[in-house]
Specification:
Blueprint: E1 8-9, E2 18-24, E3 29-34, E4 39-44, E5 49-55, E6 60-65, E7 71-75, E8 78-82, E9 95-98, E10 106-113, E11 119-125, E12 131-136, E13 143-149, E14 152-157, E15 163-168, E16 173-179, E17 186-194, E18 201-207, E19 213-218, E20 222-226, E21 232-237, E22 243-249, E23 255-260, E24 283-287
Antiparallel strand pairs: 1-24, 2-3, 3-4, 4-5, 6-7, 7-8, 8-9, 10-11, 11-12, 12-13, 14-15, 15-16, 16-17, 18-19, 19-20, 20-21, 22-23, 23-24
Length: about 300
Amino acid sequence: MQLAVKVQSIHNPICHLAECPIWNYREKKLYWTDILEKRIWKYDPHRGTIEVEWEGDLMVGGFAFTKSNDVVLCTHKGVYLLSRQPSANHDSVPKFLFDVPMADDERFNDITTDPRGRIFAGTLTEKRKGGILYKLEQHKLPLAVIEDIGTSNGMTFSLDLKHFYHTDSHARTITSYDYDIETGNIKNPLVIYQGLKENGVPDGITIDMEGYIWVACWRGAKVVRIDPNGSVVKELPIPAVQPSSVIFGGESMNELYITSACQGGVDLKRGLDEQGRYLGGEVFRINLDVNGRKEWPADF
């Protein structure tokens, strides 16, 4: 069932690989990373402004705000902490926190936080099946919790916090794991969603307050809403071939923000492929009749 809703662009500059949107509910602003251009962007819907929050020499595959509103950056060179104190600016040098062993063709690709402030951060490799999902905690070494992933991607938790959902884009799957909030351990994998070719590749995900999962479908030009058993119940057509991730935001947490990308295109300024199709690069917004859940701050 397709939803008859209005999809609006926020009219940001075209991003090469926009990913990992985060709604900062304390600031009421949207942030996202352009991984390949090494920038983090900020959108203030109240003022209607879009600006670069940070840029440097790190490919930020995912990031999370801390309790003090600083930012943990998971990058291709390790994990860093970016200060957002009044003296910081858009080209501040992040503080190195710890290293994560990576191959030359490996980088972080998406992350999430859990209620205790842990970070789950996944990697991908460019030409082989070698991605890893790490559990990151303050004052502890990174722990690999899933290995040999095709492309580690979107993650979220069930409303009752008993399940952890993880996307492997290479396999087109979303897998549910039993989750222990006290330890952060995950176990007993069960594939709940096997993406069909016509729906594209499952990428970033988020959950609504009815327990349904929203999935950005890379190269599918759509977002789908699936129930906890993995059945598609709604589809949202998106005016870009490559939607990459989703997050709820807005005053009432009922606005779905969707990042997209022109990765693989030939005209990166306009987001086009060699046939002139619009791959993406904009961030879109949709008002829905369901609310999302706030993201938890990282404890770092």
